[in-house]
Amino acid sequence: MTKTAFYNNPRFRSAFYQLLVLAAVIWFGIEFAINARANLEAQNVRFGFRFLNDPASFGISQTLISYSEQDTYTRVFLVGLLNTLLVSVIGIIFATILGFFIGLARLSPNWLLARLAGGYVELIRNLPLLFQILFWYVAVLLAMPSPRQSLGVGLQPLFLAAADGFAYLQYFGMPESIAQWWRGLAEWIGPPAVYINNRGLIMPRAIFGEGSGIVVAAFALAIFAIIGLRSWARRRQDATGKLFPVLWTSLVLLIGLPVLAALAVGAPVSFEAPELRGFNFVGGTRVIPEFTALLVALTTYTAAFIAEVVRAGVLAVPKGQTEAAMALGLRRNTTLRLVVIPQAMRVIIPPLTNQYLNLTKNSTLAVAIGYPDLVAVFAGTTLNQTHQAIEIIAITMAVYLAISLITSMAMNLYNARIRLSERV
Amino acid sequence: MTSATFVRQQLIAPSNPPASSVGTPAWLRQKLFGSALNAAATVISALILAALIWPTVRFMFIDAVWDGSSRVDCLEETVKRPVGACWPFIAAKFAQFMYGFYPADQVWRVNLTYVVGLVLLVPLLIPRAPWKTLNAVLFFGVFPVAAFYLLVGGRFGLPHVETRQWGGLLVTLVITFAGIIGSVPLGILLALGRRSSLPLLRWFCVVFIEFWRGVPLITVLFFATYMLPFFLPESWKLDPLARVLIGVILFAGAYMSEVIRGGLQAIPRGQFEAARALGLGYWKMMAFVVLPQALKIVIPGMVNSFIALFKDTTLVLIVAIFDLLGQLRAAFADPNWATPVTVLTGFAFAGVIYFIISFVISRYALYVERRLSTGVAH
């Protein structure tokens, strides 16, 4: 038997190739570092994070925490990060609701509704997101009328539109009194509280007076009570088989407790409705159009993908499960709630989280329309002012990387919890 | 003898099903007006559909202005009726939308590239067309080089055209195509590395893939545009378009590798063992046994990644490269065409182009998927 040459020995080969990879990585690292040092010197940029303490001296159009132009770049970073999180969280909530609705509509027995939902998904998914963001911003929101001709959003404009519709039907023999009735209803309901114009979305502002802390505390108490109620109801059902209307009780608690608390301390929270005076609105709060455009685009875009996820999840539940539930005498909605949805959720949750992550990452497109998110204010304006490209882009990438990793870790934990516990 | 007993000698012809369960009326009842809720859903859907389609048709065709030479022709005061799309605006800007500022007398080079690309691509997509290997080598190997020299020029008597002058759909397609050509080999290597038995190599690939997948494309483009030049020797003056291409390829390659890894995982162990038993080494086993099967399985997934890549090319406008959407945005700023309908016209035009391209690709992916799923019997 001949002895194999040492270079044919698998263990030697393995070690050799790995050393080669290691050497290549180290060589690239060193090369990059040398180049970076030379380039930074040539451009007179000093590497380091000291610039974070310099005053930013530029304004930001939307800040969740107090910010002035004298604040440091660190503050800019925080403002941008909060703006990113704000649009992501609200977008995730809306996209989930819309996405579930459209996904279920695609499965509807109603032919037209299913086709309509399918058309929505097809249209939205085949257009680039940036195209849609620019469309909503440039073609819709900036094309809105000036503040004086603001569009109202609420019941009054809806009723007026209905009145106009019935007035039109009058030529086909519809009595005129119906249109008049709608008009009267519109008059009675009063002017809307929300307006859209080319400067943004004008909404009522909540003013927290003395004792509003109690209302917030009542809200928190309601949430804790609901959590307790749920586990109690589940235990009772396991023991006795009796169902408890958890959903309705929860809703009553969630709304009732804060309202009661507010009444008890004398209505400390009031709403200030916007009012048109001269050329602009007085009072209320203004949501910048960049935020609205980004939110609408992210919501509608992600909802199309969530709809597909939901559809796939529901279709993944075998028909036999529904039939078995029906055979056991469960009603249609109970079948859905207790048999189909829990099983579909197992399939839905992982890709759904992926979509949430995508939405958060896609919120970086804000920079194209000037919404002050992390990329726009930090990797954009701050980078242009300080030229600290390496540090700033590294920080920005690290933030998104951290968000991604934390989400996928949370996902893995959740997956482990809801995993099918099979027979041993 | 007569008997009252009646015995039927022939079978009765089957009677028709009740009118309420067949034909259009039954379909309408089942699918549209089965219950009050169902009927309400139908009415609301129909209203939404009408509210979307009718204004769109009016805007695009009925109220549209078809010829003219300046903004004046698209104003309501001139036309004396509600104005829809201002198509003369598109006609005037068409060259910009298609080629950017590519010199007009050299545009034939772009068109020639398109024609050659299409002639090579179409037979590649038709499963029955012959000479697949030769075709693939020509399209993925020879065509990119030829297209590079044809578009950039500076050789073979063609005048040099700087990439700064490129724009519009040309840039969109160049980035998409280069992204595909670059990301597939990178994806294959990363996927193989991630499944390698060498721990160091595997970990390097995992970190590399997860890093690029964890960050948004914009930060990758910022990285490629602002940070990468610092890391390269000063003498390397990378073209802005080339920098963006590097970023796009790294990003798309990471996603591609995960798609391909899915295919690799679907190949049964027996295939690897059989290849080993035949005495094939690692690379021969991968190239002749595993990858041909794995790649075939993931064609639909890869095509979906290509669509995502195509849509993502729009992001380059943020780093000042004028793709179709970037040119569109620039055209909106032209005061010669400033009318109330210019913006909507532009979005309608670009939207139709983006939609058609990604819709056609996605339908092709679906077609391949169906074809493959019938071909593989389990």
Would you mind describing this structure in some detail?
The complex is a heterodimer of chains A (424) and B (378). In chain A, 67% of the residues lie in helices and 7% in strands. By secondary structure, chain A is α+β, with helices and mostly antiparallel strands. Chain A has a four-stranded antiparallel β-sheet with strand order 1-2-3-8. Chain A has a two-stranded antiparallel sheet with strand order 4-5. Chain A has a two-stranded antiparallel ribbon with strand order 6-7. In chain A, strand 6 and strand 7 (280-282) form a beta hairpin. In chain A, helix 11 (332-362) packs antiparallel against helix 13 (389-418). The longest helix of chain A has 34 residues, at 73-106. Chain A is globular and about 100 Å long. Chain B has a domain at 169-321: Orthogonal Bundle (MetI-like fold), CATH 1.10.3720.10. In chain B, 69% of the residues lie in helices and 0% in strands. Chain B contains 15 helices and no strands. Chain B has helices at 23-31, 36-62, 76-79, 87-99, 107-125, 132-152, 168-194, 199-214, 217-231, 240-266, 269-277, 282-297, 299-312, 324-332, 342-375. The longest helix of chain B is centred in the C-terminal third of the chain and has 34 residues, at 342-375. The radius of gyration of chain B is 29 Å and the shape is flat. Chains A and B meet through helix 1, helix 3, helix 4, helix 12 and helix 13 of A and helix 2, helix 8, helix 9, helix 13 and helix 14 of B.
Task: Sum this structure up briefly.
The complex is a heterodimer of chains A (424) and B (378). With 424 residues, chain A is α+β, with helices and mostly antiparallel strands.
